[in-house]
Amino acid sequence: MEILTGLATGFQAAFTPMNLLYCLIGVFIGTLIGVLPGLGPAATVAMLMPASFVLPPVSSLIMLAGIYYGAQYGGSTTSILVNLPGEASSIVTTLDGYQMALQGRAGVALATAAIGSFFAGTFATVVIAFFAPPLAKVALKFGAPEYFSLMVLGLIASIVLARGSLLKAIGMIILGLLLGIIGTDVNSGVQRYTFGFRELMDGIGFVPVAMGMFGLGEIILNLEREGVARRVIKEIKNLMPTREDWKRMVAPILRGTALGSFLGILPGGGALLSSFAAYSVEKKMSKHGDELGRGAIEGVAAPESANNAGAQTSFIPMLTLGIPTSPVMALMIGAMVIQGVQPGPSVMTEQPALFWGVIVSMWMGNFFLLILNLPMIGLWVRLCMVPYHLLYPAILVFCAIGVFTLSNSEFDVYLMAIFGILGYIFAKLDCEPAPMLLALILGPMMEEHLRRALVISRGDPMIFLTRPISLGILIVAAIALVVAVLPAIRIKREEAFKGD
Amino acid sequence: MRRRTFLITFSIVTILLCFTTYAAEQNYPTKPIRVIVGFGPGGVADLTLRIVAQKLSAQLGQQILVENRPSAGGIVAADAVAKAQPDGYTLLLMSNGNAVSASLFKSLPYDTVNDFAPVSTLGFFDIAMFAKADSKFQTVKDVISYAKANPGKLNIGTINVGSTQNLSAELFKGMAGIEATIVPYKNSPDVLVALRGNDVQIAFDMLAPIISQYKSGVVRIIAITSNRRFSPLPDIPTIAESGVPGYQASSWNAIAAPAKTPKAIIDRLNKEINMALSTQEVKTKLLEIGVTAQGGTPEDLKNLLISDIKKWRGVIERANIPKQ
Question: Cβ A327–B50 below 8 Å, yes or no?
Answer without folding.
Answer: no
